[in-house]
Amino acid sequence: MFSTFRGGYGMGKRFFLCNFAFVMTMFIAHSGVAFAESPRLVIIDDDGFALAQWMVLKAPDVKVLGVATVTGGVWQKEATVRALRGLEIANRTDVPVVGGATYPLLNSEKLTDRWESLYGHLTWRGAWMRRWVEPTSQPLRPYHGPDIVPNLPNGPPHIKASPEQAANFMIRMVHQYPGQVSIIETGPMTNLALAQRLDPDFAGLAKELVYMGGSLAPHRKLTSESSQQFEREFVNSPRREFNIRFDPEAASIVMRAPWKKIVMVPVDPSTETEMSPALLQRLTATNTPIAHQLGGRKAAFPLWDEIAVAVWLDPSLIKSSINLYVDVNTQFSAGYGDILSWNAGYQPDLDEQREEVVLSVDVPRMEALLVQLVGSP
After folding, report:
1. How far is CA 86 from CA 46, 163, 233, 260, 279, in A?
2. Among the listed ranges 12-16, 62-66, 302-306, which one has the minimum average pLDDT value?
């Protein structure tokens, strides 16, 4: 408003303001005074709702624009109900839940049955899982169709999901906040592929994609019995991982999209992590509503999704990583859904994107972050 002043007084006023601004800038630069940045904007896309999603919701300086759901470990409708109830428990009913894809783009339960008849049984089939191939202590939810939502152990939600489709919601958010929205993907990539096909500008308008999925060459790192059980998922098929294998065509579309930044969290770093009884006890001892929900959780699972969230919240947790060009085998063959990767210059150059692939993380610091977030008010 000072531009309306005339004469010497106006000139003096502008001179004073310019010098004042310069002095304050220099003071801040040399005094170490820190001001909070604007909240980091994020969308969570997932096939369930558990500790990883609660971590994002409780993180400081983070604004969760929404939780999108997709079929993977459970059907989309069940994942949506679980997300709604999870938000209620976290007292974050301000965050919308947006239902997404019920089925993969091309893959199906019948095609999976056919694949297994030709190439052998999969360890995990997610929503299509009827029985374990071998004896295991891992629990298995009852098999059911896409429209059945089992009763939740913590009761049904009282809030409703948004009527908007997940792909449309994500497109709308990246246009509303261009260059600011991070997407954390911890399930199959069907919603992301649909968004990219609907709007070719989608990936380029996002800030980054961080996803848990894929596998390179994981090796068992722990000595517990549970780690031995999970080793069966990659010991004979090191490039196969469920999130990617459930909808390989979607993953390939997403990995060829022009994201500004992609961070891949494959199975590899998870082999040195575990929801051990000791860690579970530390989490439940925080005595928060979320901690109470973890009390019934079975120990021993690797921290797959939690790693993806943790390295997004604090990239310094990454101990080692490598830049690779990544795609997915979409040929209906023995390698269907397996990860393909190349060093720079060796990729086929069919729009594969460079990704930062996380190989290892600082596990003690990551566990401390989990406990801190679960225990925060």
Report:
1. 13, 19, 28, 31, 21
2. 12-16
Which residues are bridge partners to 318 per DSSP?
A: 361
- Give Cα 107 to chain centroid, integer Å: 22
The pLDDT assigned to 226 comes to 86
Q: How many CA atoms lie within 13 A of 233 on its CB side?
A: 26
Report whether 64 contacts 58 (CB < 8 A). Answer: no
Distance of CA 284 to the CA centre of its chain: 23
pLDDT value at position 37?
60
Calculate Rg over the CA atoms of the chain. 23
Q: Are strands 318-328 and 181-185 parallel, antiparallel or unpaired?
A: unpaired
Segment 324-350 mean pLDDT: 98
Q: Closest by alpha carbon to 229, among 144, 123, 319? A: 123
Q: What is the mean pLDDT of residues 238-261?
A: 98
- Which pair of structure tokens corresponds to residue 372? 């801190």
Q: What is the 3-state secondary structure (H, E, C) of 232-285?
A: CCCCCCCCCCHHHHHCHHHHHHHHCCCCCCEEEECCHHHHHCCCCHHHHHHHHC
Check residue 3 and report its DSSP letter. G
Query: Could you tell me whether strands 262-265 and 208-212 are parallel, antiparallel, or unpaired per DSSP bridges?
Result: parallel
Q: Give the sheet arrangement for strand 62-69, strand by strand.
A: 97-99, 62-69, 40-46, 181-185, 208-212, 262-265, 353-361, 318-328, 339-342
Of the candidates 67, 56, 48, 68, the residue with the CA atom closest to the CA atom of residue 167 = 68
pLDDT tens, residue by residue, 99-127: 999 999 999 999 999 999 999 999 999 99
**Taking a C-beta distance cutoff of 8 angstroms, is the pair 291, 375 a contact?**
yes
Computed over every residue of the chain, the mean pLDDT equals 91
- Cβ-based burial of 223 (10 A; exposed 0-12, middle 13-18, buried ≥19): exposed
pTM, two decimals, is: 0.90
Q: Hey, how many other C-beta atoms are within 10 angstroms of the C-beta on 157? A: 20
**Whether pLDDT at 26 is above 70:** no
| Confidence (pLDDT) at 150 | 95
- 329: DSSP letter: -
Q: 297 is written with which tokens?
A: 């959780």
